[in-house]
Amino acid sequence: MSGRKKRKITKAERLKQLQEEEERRQREEEEARVKYEKEEMERLEIQRIEKEKWHQLEAKDLERRNEELEELYLLEGCFPEAEKLKRDTRLLSQWKHYIQCDGSPDPSISPEINTFISLWKEETNETLEEVIAKSKLVLNLIDKLKLILLETPPYDLEDKNIIQYQGSILELQELLHLKFNIATEILLRQASTLADLDSGNMEKVIQDENVTLYVWANLKKNPRYKSVRFSETQIGFEIPRILATSDIALRLLHTHYDHVTPLCPVPTSLQEHTATVTHFVKDEVKNEEAAISKELQEEGKQRENESNSVQEEETKFEEQGDSEVQMSFVQEEPEATKFELEMKLLSETVLSAQLLLIENANEKPCFFEDNEVDLCQFTTLGGVYHLDILELPPQCKPMKGWMIVEILKEGLQKYIYPPETTEDVETENAFPPIEVTLEVQENVIFFEDPVVARWDAEGKHWQTDGISNVSYKSEERLITFSLETFGPVTLIQDSHINMPFQSWELRPLDVNKVLLTVTTVFTEIQIQIKENLCMLASIKLNNKKHSSILEGKWMTPISFICALKEAGLNIFPSGHSHFYVVINYKDPLVEMKAYRQLALLSSAFAFGWSKWNTVCNSKKVIVKLKEHLTEEPTQKPNWTNLMFSGDRAQRLKINENSEAFSEALQEETEFHSTLYHMVKDFASKKAMEKIRSSNCQFIDSVCYMLLSTRLLSYS
After folding, report:
1. What's CA 130's distance to the chain center, in Å?
2. Which partner for 80 in 346, 371, 402, 568 could form a disulfide, CB atoms 3.0-4.6 Å apart?
3. Is 470 left (phi over 0), alpha (psi -120 to 50) or beta?
4. What is the pLDDT of residues 217-275, one digit of tens each?
5. 309-359, pLDDT tens digit by residue?
6. More confident call, 40 vs 163
7. Residue 221 exposed, middle or buried by CB count within 10 Å (0-12, 13-18, 19+)
8. Closest CA to 179 of 131, 138, 249
9. Whether residue 283 has pLDDT greater than 60
10. At CA 466, angle to CA 461 and CA 467, rounded to 5?
11. Cβ neighbours around 468 below 10 Å, total
């Protein structure tokens, strides 16, 4: 039994066991420490090598920076060159208008437009058809003046010109509306002779490309005739009994343009800022001109002294020849230098104007009424519906072969509804809101149900109160609502409904031709750009192609942007948009430099949205890029991510499928000061040739569209 008992461990054995365990633990710790130190040394060595390599790359970049920036400056000479061409075109426009001899005035020349307005004021008894025909010319003159204000750079616009052009626009708008009122009065005087045989009332409908007019005269005053519908359509009114028994006329004048909303003022800060830059550069140019003139004089004296000493043994004929060559050389050099200075001045002013295009406003507009429409947040679309209840003027009466009519001195009068005093009326609900049904213009896109707004004549703004029971039938494009008082009405939509963008891509199509695709929550818009023109290529709504009258029409960039906005396709942020949209803020100077350089490369490289652009800080932008020399899109594009900080460009190691963001440099690549020199490292010879041979107007147009859409901040 004693043999089966477990032998006790002695104290010496226990101590030995503990000692062995301690030695093993110390050995393991030592091995771990040695391993950690080795790994740490390797890591530090790798860091040191990477840091050394980084410093070498930075030093190399710094060494060639001036050379690269000088080459970029020469390439970006296309921007002042394009501006010079635009300036020449503006100067030639007056001459082109003069030689056309079509009888229309030049709206930019004050005496001509004033004469036109005065002569038209003197014309009387014009019918609605005649006014509508004349309105085409008037609207064309207004559009020309608006375009001059938009297309002329602020440094070429004087305050007196702005006041003159805006004054002419307002005068033309007011006169056109007055002519419609006078023509309506002339029509209503003849209402009894134009009465419908069935209803006994008069109805008149005139449709034109710019105006749709509906007029109804209540001749029978039948209390049961409360539903007014025009030309067997659903457009019309539901009127109360008091109107059905009154001598009134209803007019719905739908102008497809908006002459009610006040004109946008030209920002004074923009003018002052540009003027400051211009004066600064002009002073610099004067100083350089003085220095160059002094140098030329000294060189001329030196040449004269040298020629006198050398030409003692030469013939008189040779002396004359040398002096002629010398004089022509001295004359040509100042001319060339003067041109360079002019282009430098223009380059600085263009740069300033481009920077101002993407600057954010510091303060949000303040509005004092709860129901006032913020025109920085909302846009009026589809024109203005002028709703009027008019007093029926005295009717024409036949007498002995003549038509006798009483003409009221005060002209066409509005019927006040509801009346200011209602003492004689027994029931409280005798003046209910009037139900109105309108047709939404077919060329305008509403991504959500439109909001109805009415014009407040006293406050000079749109507001949304006094309107109830709004319903919208999108398929029939009909909107019905109840209105307490009549007056101008419009439909509004959030200006930023398509912002921020989900993605974008800029792809070359042909020589000096690219396709810009912008994808939003509701739509995909494709824009073609060539030379100094833009065109809407296609629109997709909910992944389905949507037809538009703008498709296939080539326009200048500013006209094109205005046309898209008027169609409800606003993808162009304003200076106040950042107050209404969550944006990916980027430093304006970095953003502007990026757009300029992307435009330079756009003829041979495709660019696109990168998810990493939202991760990097505001001083850097990231885009994906690939060489693209064919018109067709690549099936499996091999994109490269580029990061640009305004003064440094680099290829990133990460791609769009990477899990985490890193600024690590792509292996075997270097830093460069510009995107142009970055892509030059891996671009084909053909691609670089296409870039260098790009048209200056094309590059300028691409840059303007990028500046206007602000894809790097609003995607």
Report:
1. 36
2. 346
3. beta
4. 988 888 888 888 888 788 999 999 899 888 899 999 999 999 999 988 765 444 454 45
5. 444 444 444 444 444 444 444 455 567 787 788 888 888 889 988 999 999
6. 163
7. middle
8. 131
9. no
10. 100
11. 12
228, 239 contact by CB (below 8 A): yes
Structure tokens at 107: 């709206």
CB 574 within 8 A of CB 376: yes
Residue 600 near residue 676, CB atoms below 8 Å? yes
- Between the alpha carbon of residue 264 and those of residues 372, 435, 547, the distances in Å are 17, 33, 30
Confidence of residue 281 (pLDDT cuts 50, 70, 90): very low
Identify the DSSP state of 193.
G
d(CA 469, CA 418): 19
AA letter at 570: N
Segment 401-420 shows an average pLDDT of: 78
152, 214, 540 from 228: Cα distances, Å: 48, 11, 38
Instruction: Return the axis-axis angle of helices 316-357 and 268-310, rounded to nearest 10°.
Output: 160
**Checking DSSP bridges between strand 503-510 and strand 461-463, what pairing results, if any?**
unpaired
Q: Please give the Cα distance from 60 to 75 (Å, whole number).
A: 22
| Max intra-chain CA distance, the chain | 157
Give me Rg for the CA atoms of the chain: 37
Residue 691 CB contacts under 8 Å (≥ 6 apart), including other chains: 600, 601, 603, 604, 676
Query: Which has the minimum average pLDDT: 61-75, 132-146, 562-576?
Result: 61-75
CA separation for the pair 52, 46 (Å, rounded) = 10
Name the amino acid, one letter, at 108.
Answer: S
Residue 89, amino acid: T
Instruction: Count the neighbouring beta carbons within 10 Å of the beta carbon of residue 460.
Output: 10
* Contact partners, residue 404, CB within 8 Å, separation at least 6: 396, 397, 398
Give the DSSP per-residue string, 22-52.
HHHHHHHHHHHHHHHHHHHHHHHHHHHHHHH
For the chain, what is the mean pLDDT?
84
Number of CB atoms found within 10 A of residue 594's CB: 25
The Cα 172–Cα 166 span in angstroms is 10
Q: Tokens representing 471?
A: 């319903």
Nearest CA to 614 out of 653, 650, 582, 581 is that of 582
Q: What percentage of the chain exceeds 90 in pLDDT? A: 47
Which is more confident, 636 or 414? 414
Residue 361: per-residue pLDDT: 87
CA distance 343 to 78: 10
Its pTM stands at 0.84
Terminal Cα distance for the chain, rounded: 88
Q: Which structure tokens are listed for 19?
A: 């000692």
Residue 695 three-state SS? coil
**Mean pLDDT value of segment 442-471:** 92
Which ranges constitute the DSSP H helices of 538-587?
557-566
Segment among 39-48, 286-295, 383-392 with least mean pLDDT: 286-295
Q: Where are the alpha helices (DSSP H) in 311-407?
A: 316-357
C-alpha dihedral sign at 236, 452, 485, 488: negative
Q: Stretch 386-400: mean pLDDT, rounded?
A: 83
Alpha-carbon distance of 493 to 476, in angstroms, equals 19
Whether the CB-CB separation of 707 and 354 falls below 8 Å is answered with yes
